[in-house]
Amino acid sequence: MRKNIVAGNWKMNKTLQEGLALATELNVALAKAKPNCEVVIGTPFIHLASVVAAIDTKKIHVAAQNCADNDSGAYTGEVSAAMIKSTGAEYVILGHSERRGYYGETSDILYDKVALALTNGLTPIFCCGEALEVRNANEQNAFVKTQLEEAVFNLSVDDFKKIVIAYEPIWAIGTGVTATTEQAQEMLAFIRSLIVRKFGKEIAENTSILYGGSCNAKNAPELFAQPDIDGGLIGGASLKVADFKAIIDAF
Ligand code: 13P
Questions:
Q1: Residue 157 sits in which domain range?
Q2: Which residues pair with 62 in a beta bridge?
């Protein structure tokens, strides 16, 4: 059975001290009762090792928000998948629209990053999603299909089994405009149908597919009740424990 996952993406927020305080507070909040889903927090690189050391990693799993597209060597300022793994982090968010849009990450680059993450034992949370113009032209399905085909559908079955997919329509990120439950369910069912075609029914049934984009405590219960929505990738609402915990409790 596939996992339900609530993953926070802190983006470029919180100093090390603030991040540690947030992670520790979440750890306390989750210590009382076991969550009904896998909880992940995606912190900036410099927080990873300290956060891992400060929490119960059986209850909260830690993600990086990016990794380098090379193994090691003369790439000033880059952080490799092996380095991330060495901190105790288990996941890496890859292909976020902010990385694609602001830092020129192409499908070719993402293909390499996904491969390196997998080689180093990290679970990629691979993001896809269309801009508003694409949605207005009703071309979102073809757009997302291409993003998946170019970066993850060429993986071997054994590798594909290890990844998590997150659909995040760009128009819903940080805008307060959530995709309607119908729009989110429709796209996630479409993505699952593509996986059925490419890798077969069993793999598709076991792949966790998340929705992201203005997901909050109010809309999470309805979103997570949909048959193809296996959780959320949460930006703003992951920065406050009460908000994030309420989303976790939607499962
Ligand atoms: P918001 O939840 O702030 O809209 O961000 C979503 C997101 O980009 C998570 O990766």
A1: 5-248
A2: 41
